[in-house]
Backbone:
């Protein structure tokens, strides 16, 4: 071997090292020769960089580059191992980034970027379908894009969207809309047979004094309607139209509003009101207006 010492070593031209066995290049810590960095070139040019600290795992490898770091793997793959398995893979030709389960590499998360930057995040469970994707965020989650679409698999047997709110004094779902001529919330259901387009299951097991409300529509008009301007406001508009020509022997029943207020036991002082209507303050106040074709 050759041992070189000195504060500065100058070399012109190339450097070629031929070593039979052992490390090709080994750089020691001058304060402790048991700590070192080595470069070893093996069969087919396979090269290994090794850092060693004799008492712990603090022999970090740091690159401080005044420029870019460029890797050009011939098989278009970059791997990161945990010492036993390759658990991270970057396929530069696709390009796709994979993170594998270290216990079963057939299970993984992948992030793929396609044409126009279209990005797909996928999880795969080779044995079942429990490769859930969970975000634990120490802050808010903000999505800024051209809408959000949730596509639920036909065999998922789960809601397309579940909001599980554990903050008892915060709103579970709040919509702040600047809409002018488009609906704020639209529900389209064209294949219902026994289901409901909107179902609210409000149960109450309270034993102390409470005053809950299942549905509350709060509309406040503050603008002054100008001269010769006609405005019309509707709090609740229910339209049911049968546009079909039914079979002569068919039976169709349409009910616009079905109200049931029932107490199973009348013990105590109970009051049930099916509908309470108050209309005041206008030139003409109508509590209830009913128009039917047969007069019933």
Residues:
């Amino acid at each position: 071997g050759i041992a070189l010492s000195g504060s500065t070593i100058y070399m012109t031209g190339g450097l070629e090292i031929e070593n039979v066995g052992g490390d090709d290049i080994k750089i020691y810590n001058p304060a402790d020769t048991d700590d070192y960095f080595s470069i070893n070139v093996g069969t087919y040019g396979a090269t290994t960089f090794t850092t060693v600290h004799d008492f712990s795992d603090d022999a970090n490898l740091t690159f401080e580059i005044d420029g870019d770091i460029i890797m050009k793997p011939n098989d278009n793959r970059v791997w990161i191992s945990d010492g036993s398995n390759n658990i991270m893979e970057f396929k530069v030709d696709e390009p796709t980034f994979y993170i594998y389960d270290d216990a079963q590499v057939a299970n993984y998360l992948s992030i793929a970027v396609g044409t126009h930057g279209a990005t797909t995040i996928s999880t795969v469970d080779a044995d079942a379908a429990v490769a859930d994707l969970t975000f634990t965020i120490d802050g808010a989650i903000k999505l800024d894009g051209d809408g959000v679409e949730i596509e639920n698999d036909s065999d998922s047997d789960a809601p397309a969207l579940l909001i599980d709110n554990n903050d008892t004094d915060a709103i579970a779902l709040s919509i702040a809309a600047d809409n002018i001529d488009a609906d704020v919330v639209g529900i389209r259901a064209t294949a219902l047979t026994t289901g409901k387009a909107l179902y609210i299951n409000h149960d109450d097991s309270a034993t102390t004094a409470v005053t809950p409300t299942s549905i509350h529509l709060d509309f406040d008009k503050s603008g002054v309607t100008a001269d010769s301007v006609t405005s019309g406001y509707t709090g609740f508009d229910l339209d049911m139209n049968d546009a079909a020509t039914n079979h002569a022997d068919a039976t169709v029943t349409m009910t616009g509003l079905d109200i049931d207020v029932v107490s199973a036991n009348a013990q105590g002082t109970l009051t049930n009101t099916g509908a309470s209507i108050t209309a005041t303050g206008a030139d003409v106040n109508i509590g209830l207006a009913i128009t039917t074709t047969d007069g019933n």
